[in-house]
Amino acid sequence: MILKINLNKIALGGGCHWCTEAVFQSLKGVEKVEQGHVASTGINGAFSEAVIVHFNEEEINLRTLITIHLHTHKSTSEHSMRQKYRSAIYWFNKEQENQVLLALEKIQEDFDYQIITQVYQFKIFKPSREQITNYYYKNPEKPFCKTYIDPKLKILTNKFEVHLKKQALSP
Description:
The chain has helices spanning 17-25, 62-71, 94-107, 135-138, 143-159; strands at 7-13, 30-39, 48-56, 88-91, 118-121, 124-127. With 171 residues, it is of the alpha+beta class. The chain is globular and about 40 Å long.
């Protein structure tokens, strides 16, 4: 008997793709995280660091992924690196776009400041080179990981522990 897993995908950009990759690799229901650069269309056609998250909707839903995404990067602040680190959610079909917009509206209630995360159509993905993929779980003791990724994983432990894989925080 073959079980069909209901996988979906969403592309997410926030901070560094190493950080974003580690956050989503740590979650139950996330089957694969592709790290790289994503672009949309038109004036948003420039590449920025992002990940594509492949997830099992029966284990973790899109709204939960978006909530986690917004809480684990600076989703309410503009900064000088926004072109490289665009705060964005990239949808793959119109139904998903509607789900994302509705989720953002509801999740805004959790924040004191306006969420600046943009919603864009997914156009193209350039994967990172193999040497830098799975960065955190290959290099947990590196200063970058300790300084930037560990605090994001601590947010997962404090706010979203129910969604963590058992081995997630033991690289």
